[in-house]
Design a protein that fits this description.
By secondary structure, this protein is mainly alpha-helical. It contains seven helices and two strands; from the N terminus they run ααααββααα. The chain is elongated.
């Protein structure tokens, strides 16, 4: 490959990398806005909705494990869990492995309400994904996992964790 061609390829790669970074920032902003609007419709604060999502994805969880995943202080987590419990989104139960501890689980009877508010986005994602073959989608999924891992690592570094 000539030096001109390799220089063009390097510029194209840099431009594409910048476009990916800009796209991720824009996606983050749009998803934050969507979540804020969903939370408002449900009467939930942003942090409450984030924690509910974590419980739905990874629960049941101990309040301590949830606080760690959410990056929240234990006292803040108590307020979040109190609000979610009062609103009928979660239940706190004794941990069968340690009766002194508790676990937080999502109450699934309200999930339809939550899913209905995300239906437009989920339909759009289905349509977008239909333009890609399975190999492309696997590659995109891998990219998103690695990007999420990089975000977790960067957040941990800000907390002084390697």
């Amino acid at each position: 490959m000539s030096s001109v061609a390799s220089g063009d390829a390097a510029r194209r790669r840099r431009r594409a990398t910048v476009e990916v970074q800009q796209g991720l920032r824009e996606l983050s902003a749009e998803l934050t806005l969507l979540n804020r609007k969903v939370g408002t419709r449900l009467g939930l604060k942003d942090t409450d909705l984030d924690c509910l999502d974590l419980i739905n994805a990874h629960g049941p969880l101990s309040p301590t494990a949830l606080a760690q995943r959410a990056g929240l202080h234990a006292a803040t987590m108590t307020g979040v869990l109190d609000r979610l419990e009062r609103a009928g989104w979660i239940a706190r139960e004794r941990d069968p492995a340690d009766r002194r501890a508790s676990l937080v689980r999502a109450l699934r009877d309200r999930n339809a309400e939550l899913l209905a508010l995300f239906a437009g986005m989920n339909s759009s994602l289905e349509l977008i994904c239909s333009d890609y073959d399975a190999a492309d989608l696997e590659r995109l999924a891998g990219f998103l996992r690695r990007t999420a891992d990089a975000g977790r690592k960067a957040a941990g570094e800000l907390d002084g964790k390697p």
